Fold each of these.
Amino acid sequence: MATSAVSRGMALRFYRYCWLHYRRNWKGTIVISVANPLLFLIAIGAGLGTLVGSDVAALGGVSYLAFFAPGMLAAASMQNGMIESAFPVSYHRMPGRAYPVAVATPLEPVDVLNGHALFMAVKVAIGAAAFCAVMFAFGVATSPLAALTLPAAALTGFAFAMPVTAWAVTLPDVRPVQTLFKWVVMPLYLFSGTFFATTQLPEAAQHLVALTPLWHGVELCRTLTLGTATWAGSLTHTGYLSAMALAGYLLARRNFRRHLHP
Amino acid sequence: MSDVIAQATGLVKTYPPRDKRSAPFTAVDGIDFALHRGEAFGFLGPNGAGKSSTMRMIACVSPPTAGTLRVLGMDPAVDGRRIRARLGVVPQDDALDSELSVRENLLIYGRYFGLSTRLIDERATRLLDFAQLSDKAGERVEALSGGMRRRLTIARSLVNEPELLLLDEPTTGLDPQARHVLWDRLFRLKQQGVTLVLTTHYMDEAEQLCDRLVVMDGGRIVAHGSPAELIAAHATREVLELRFGIGEQAAALDKLRQAVSGDRIEELPDRLLWYTGEGDAALAAAHALGLTPVTALVRRSSLEDVFLALTGRTLVD
């Protein structure tokens, strides 16, 4: 018990560093993490979406904007989770950067991981909150369950951030991160039900999509926003995303120790 | 025994293979040493000798593969956190956050040690004065010169008032003037009673700063002692350096080796080194043999010569 209290305090020391570092860098990231998703929401949802009739069965009887907005929220959260982890972790783990400096002090690799993971979670939640505020201002939320959309979106982002953190700490340079965004983020973004209902896909593709994590995030956010959530569905989605976050975190613990105290 | 601040017996560091085809790499291959409180101790050797790996083990950021290691009387495998709280570390690559200001770098580092902002502020003022950086406190690190950065890294390493300061290649990459400023600061620290441990591949640095040192090569310690003891044991009092015209060195070496017995003569790509008690007498002897070197220099033996004698190689290629 005493040990874990010490470790929590140590993690907060690195968390404070993350904020100080961010104060010098926020201008570059706020555009991509907050402004971009909102521009998408307005351009596609409120603009292009008016061309789609609200009587389309696949949308479940709501306007395209109401259908698209929560999907976009989940996809943007995924992207934020990846942006908050892949680039900073692979950057900070280099010789002479923040991670090796911190683990030469009383901080252990796991403290650095915990502090940075907390920072990622807070950043993903802030991005999701900004998006939710605009989404709700458009009046798409029709159910009190919509209040749970924010934690659902934050969980979606965090579920991606943890495995990516575990991977990024092993990288000798940041180049593989570009590949990740091209070959993983982009396809998930487009085919997880963000822009169209996956029921419009061939059946085999539907099963495949239902195995991917973003689909669970999209479904969770959408059903909560529209008030169509079921206990079984929501628990499945939440369980999937939580398991992914936990597995990623445990792998990251091991990798941080191996790579920062080699 | 109470004055031993760090001690190793049979210390080994083997890194796992990078991929399936490569073999594990043993960087440190069974070394013993004892560092004493208040001394300046050096690990001298060429790149790849195992100096940095040894330092990383003492700094408790790399667990030993085998052997025993005690730092400040504790076992790094058990008490790494507590040991690191009392160490100062100056890494080779400075490791400063170049986007933050000079003072912010000290603040962040001090917080890692759990110090209050007020205490860090107090110490920062004093440390920046010591590092001759008081007028740069508010500037971003990216605006500092290499020598200033290194001094800031040293100032930062002192924020927790460490008992043991570890410096990895402290003056590599600095110009001669910046090196002398840095040596002066390190000498002051030593006089204040801080134990210094440093790695270097510069023999002048080792001679300037170290009370005792070990010479490392291929992961092993090949000699130990004070700079003067090492020179006395492994080199002569003086060295005659002879440079010849292009293509003439080999013939001159043959001639010298036939005529001179007892003295050791080393061949480097660009010159011959004649180890002798009397350099001027040796030069006269060379002239008497009819040799006409382009340049001839008599100097005192240095640790470079010790290293050459022990390994047959120079420290800096």
Amino acid sequence: MAHFNLYSRGDWIFGYANAALIGIFVLSTLYPFIYILAVSVSSGAAVTSGQVILFPKDLTLAAYEFVLSDRLFWIAYGNTFIYTFGGTAVSLAIMIPGAYALSRSRLRGRKFLNLMVAFTLWFNAGMIPFFLNMRDLGLLDSRFGLIIGFACNAFNVILLRNFFEAVPKSFEEAAKMDGASEFQLLWKVFIPLSKPAIITVGLFCIVSRWNSYFWAMVLLRGEEKIPLQLYLKRIIVDLSANDEFASSLMTSRYSFETVTAAIMIASIIPVLLIYPSIQKYFNKGITLGGVKE
Amino acid sequence: MTSRMTHYLKGIGEDLRRDWQLYLLALPMIVWFLLFLYKPMEGLQIAFKDFSPFRGIAGSPWVGLENFRTLLEDQIFIRAFINTITISGLGLIFAFPVPIILALMFNELQNEFGRRFSQTIVYLPHFISVVIVAGIVINLLSPTTGVINLILSSLGFEPVYFLTQPEWFRSVFIGSNIWKEAGFESIVYLAAIAGVSPTLYESARVDGASRWQMIWRITLPCILPTIIIMLIIRIGNLVEVGFEYIILLYQPATYSTADVVSTYVYRTGLQGTQYDLATAAGLFNAVIAFALVFTANRISRKVSSTSLW
């Protein structure tokens, strides 16, 4: 069957209309980012008089200078790095061995343990009991508490477990012949073979740690421990209602709007930097996840 | 009976001895789940007690369903519950179809580069924090400097205070959620479309079907199971809205449409320390959610033989 004249004229029109609609969707996805970027490098006067819509006006880095000279910004940035990478390391260190053990079919009690993990997908105690539990454990206002309290989740455990289950038996048998212990088996066979799944879960952890603010807001007291998102929240949300502060920020060089835009850009940049690798792995992650049970 | 018992116990002992390394590997995770997800369930008792932090959970007296009665007489809670259902229901109508349509559109895009590029862009907002999204929304909708109001005023309209007027809250919330998540959610449907057998399209082409007809007669029916599963998940989450995002966007002026059960729990429990009432509200929500998933799953298994479990 020849492939020319596959599409009628109606189909061509359909194709163009479709491409145009996707174009519109892509542009409206991009626009807010471009706008925030333009605001962050414009002068405060240009923004407050409503001159910035797409392109920056009176190009200046004044807003960035203001942000980068704020001591709390750097503290929050540093804290976020601790929470993100410390948290992800702890998550993987607990979930990988756990998911591996649950993937072994001869493990007695496996069914029960799997159910114990999966049940938490559908039901959890809720905000207040979780908070009171953290308090009882003495994990309020503690960096360690914020890291350990959110180390695992059922979705990631199931994803890893499914991947370990799919590793061909022959690898395991060959290693067992050489007298490998379970620890060696996990470390030398399963982890290297499951790199895509582990990287996927690691990236999920990194992204969710980097972006979360709610429990940091609830659990932390001191300013010295807050992550970047909470710092952002305090400036963008809590202060935008407070016009007095907003106007105190206002000079001709920067304004409340340009300063908040600069903070937003500064916190998006690391996400953009790892985005290509996220892209590569999350497609796999989602298709191999197939969370069931 | 007792000999069978000892035999059974011996079997466990042998398994434990044989697989002690595996149990050791699983131990930290099991302890974690018990300590951080199961131990808090003990705190659910508070919902049935007159809780005082000084007396602790065990020392506080039982009050039966008193807290639930108080809740159901509380106009603010009733309003929050209705708002939760309304926002979710509107999301189901307006936001749920968007990723399906997007996936179909991506699938019809012939240009491989254009397709990859546009997918890369529309997935991006999923990875941006709700704080940033709220910041962007606040910026774009600002009555004095926001783009939307600049456009409105250039057309001769009065500026609209989107974030302080209750009638605008739902549109802003659902609209920005579509912007953030629709692209990423289309991945699931794209994966389903990739699994549709190409021979179906080939034979349809031979019969002279147009692309439009192929979408309706082949692609959509083939991805229907995926759509149903996503719908079940969505219905199960009908009483869970993105409260972390709402907390950033709402203010007392918009509580009448924006306050949902989770934000009510947060305000009464964590900001107001009425732990018993807030726990009862949370439990009320969780039980409804659990029932919803079960019902949706059962109905779907009967109607279409597609189900989550």
